[in-house]
Amino acid sequence: MDSTGGSAAVSLETVTKTYMVGEPVHALDGVDLEIPRGSYVAVMGPSGSGKSTLMNVIGCLDTPTKGTVYLDGEEVTTMSDRERTRIRGEEVGFVFQTFNLMPRLTAVENVALPLVFRGIPVGERRERATELLERVGLGDRLDHVPNELSGGQRQRVAIARALVNDPALILADEPTGNLDTETGENIMSLFEELHAEGNTVVMVTHERPVAEHAERVVHLLDGRIERIEELDAVGAEVES
After folding, report:
1. What distance in Å separates the CA atoms of residue 86 and residue 92, rounded to the nearest whole number?
2. Spatial CA neighbour of 195 closest among 176, 222, 213, 220
3. Does an H or E element contain 90, and which?
4. How many CB atoms are closer than 10 A to CB 180?
5. Which site in 34, 161, 185, 197 is 20 to 30 Å from 215, CA atoms measured?
6. 152-155 — which CB contacts under 8 Å span 24+ positions?
7. CATH number at residue 24
8. Structurally, how many domains does the chain consist of?
């Protein structure tokens, strides 16, 4: 790894995140990780292992206590809050377990929302959002609000919203956690399509079958990388 993060989508160099809970708690403890552009990585580990903290640091939702983070070769740890906000809005697409949709907005309005903050004209916003909803199979649900959609449909809206700014990196935190098995498999098929198109996908999950859709699994334990597992095309560990 070179000093500028090289050609990786994500590079973490000795990243530590410490919280004070009476005494110091190291949510991340000296993590070194490189995620190549166009790769598909799952992050697994028990509760409290640092999975969500790692995702927040990569996505510029949080800053490390120590260490350096690069996104697409650009150091983000020394950026101002405003600069990190720009990176989150333009370079990273987030998909959350709880969908995080605005309840009073329609599907197309939810997807178009990130474009509002970029000053994109309303007609262009709706056109882009409509294209993405059609892409995820919701072209007939454009004007439905979230409580008129199933869990799987809401997650598809969330994925379309994550893609609306054409991000360099897609971060998914337990994207199938609130879905039944069949719907979860459909969502994972969509992530596989996005990866096949060249997108970099990083996904936190506690479910082994979900992780097996990835090319690589990063196993965390007590804030450290325990091991990195390379998978073949059908989710089996590659023999070293």
Report:
1. 10
2. 213
3. helix 81-91
4. 11
5. 161
6. 152/179, 152/180, 152/183, 152/186, 152/187, 154/99, 154/101, 155/95, 155/99, 155/179, 155/183, 155/187
7. 3.40.50.300
8. 1
Burial class, 160, CB count within 10 angstroms (exposed 0-12 / middle 13-18 / buried 19+): buried
**Bridge partners for 219 per DSSP:** 44, 227
Residue 137, sorted as left (phi over 0), alpha (psi -120 to 50) or beta, turns out to be: left
d(CA 159, CA 180): 17
Location of structure tokens 């809005």:
89
Range of 43's domain?
Answer: 8-100+169-230
For 13-30, what is each residue's pLDDT tens digit?
999 999 988 888 899 999
CB 175 within 8 A of CB 191: yes
φ and ψ at residue 33, rounded to 5 degrees: -155, 135
Each residue's pLDDT tens digit, 90-130:
899 999 888 999 999 999 999 999 998 888 899 999 999 99
> Is 93 contained in some domain?
yes
Asked, for residue 151, whether it belongs to a domain, the answer is no
Query: What pTM did the predictor assign?
Result: 0.88
Q: How far apart are CA 132 and CA 75, in angstroms?
A: 30
Q: DSSP secondary structure string, 46-69?
A: -TTSSHHHHHHHHTTSS--SEEEE
In a domain, 92, yes or no: yes
